[in-house]
Amino acid sequence: MTERVAIVGAGLTGALLATMLGQRGYDVAVYERRPDPRLAGAERGRSINLAISTRGLTALQAVGLEEDVLARGLLMRGRMIHTATGEEEFQPYSADGERGINSISRGELNAVLLDAAEKLPGVSLHFEHRLTALDLDVRTMSFAAPSGSVDVEADAIIGADGAFSVVRRAMQGRVGFDFSQDYLSHSYKELTIPAVNGDYALDPGALHIWPRGASMMIALPNLDKTFTATLFWPRTGPGSFEEIATPEQARRYFDDNYPDASELMPDLEEDYRLNPVGALLTVRCSPWNTGRVALIGDAAHAICPFYGQGANAGFEDCIELIAQLELHAGNWEPALDAYARIRKPQGDAIADLALHNFIEMRDSVNSLSYRALHSTELLLHRALGDRYKTRYEMVSFSTVPYAEIEPTVRRQRTVAGVATAVGLAGLAYLGFAARRR
Ligand SMILES: Cc1cc2nc3c(=O)[nH]c(=O)nc-3n(C[C@H](O)[C@H](O)[C@H](O)COP(=O)(O)OP(=O)(O)OC[C@H]3O[C@@H](n4cnc5c(N)ncnc54)[C@H](O)[C@@H]3O)c2cc1C
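YS: structure for the whole thing
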């Protein structure tokens, strides 16, 4: 008998997992609380575009969608730093200067994935179905739908319902389930930099950053020649969303702090007034599974967006879940157990890396010492190849498990430090010997 799998949430992770399971002949029903986003369009000011890198592309390749998605993306090969006085400096992401991350419309990516899932004979999509109750033992669910309450049973349930997961909330009632939720002191707001005379106002081959120490603005290009800019400002205190309350104050703040961008944003006041302020949080929980129910994507590990890895990590979860299902011959309980055990440390590691990268993006990129280290590391990578990889390369251009990245960075830096010290000692000795002769 074909097993019935229910996926709660038709966001990026849920839609990809539905496609992967559907391609393997599973009977998959996806329940999504919102209307079909392909018909309803994007919500104003809610994460318009996002960066997809190697991990996400690897998962998309596995379902045959990599080309399709890349055709809708723009390659950003490095960061363009905008100083407070309006100068620009380009910092490549990779040693060869060629590799980059792809700016892609979230709505389009979601639509591509939903189209792919919907085409599969075993997959059905149920929009406007909000999960309201879940019995973990017998795997029954209740959904609030336009026609009233709908009750559903499934052989396995996957919670892909995002940072405020209702599936996770049901698991929180279990003894032994650990959960933490940490709000960042900063929130975000999206704005638009429109095209100028039909062309991009800034270089579309870069991710633009206006680092200002305690806060920052970034901008990613869109195919329609606009940029989506995102402010990451403190919620309260100096330079915060609370302090800069009116559109007029926002314009004055922009003129003082982002003068080059301010000139390019005629609709700043309107965007600032209308677009919502979004919270940023890190969610950690454990275990990610109980019986034949498991969490995936943001439901298991909501992280801050500073490495552009949330969706990439969710896509990697899908690969692992499928690999374990195949390894365990479709036996859900051991497969979900192994999946959760393998992916939980990865979720924790990328959460930490993301928080670390916030400090790098808003502050360190400006400093001389950071720039010197960045250039040296790229030189070392060029000279030593895969024996020396930067943290950024490992996160964005590899599928090295996230949890291995920080220990590798530390090891490499120790070796590089020792090599530099030995080299300097050797030079000093040669100089001393030459003087004695
Ligand atoms: C500002 C910002 C920028 C980001 N930039 C990047 C980036 O550059 N690169 C990157 O990889 N990631 C980025 N991310 C992270 C990325 O958006 C998330 O990691 C990703 O969307 C997670 O996908 P998901 O499917 O797990 O969850 P979600 O996208 O949150 O989808 C969950 C789905 O579940 C549905 N749902 C919720 N509750 C219920 C319910 N009770 N019943 C039924 N359905 C329900 C929701 O409506 C939603 O459709 C960014 C995030 C933010 C906030």
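YS: worth flagging: The radius of gyration is 24 Å.
IM: good catch. Also The first helix runs from residue 12 to 23.
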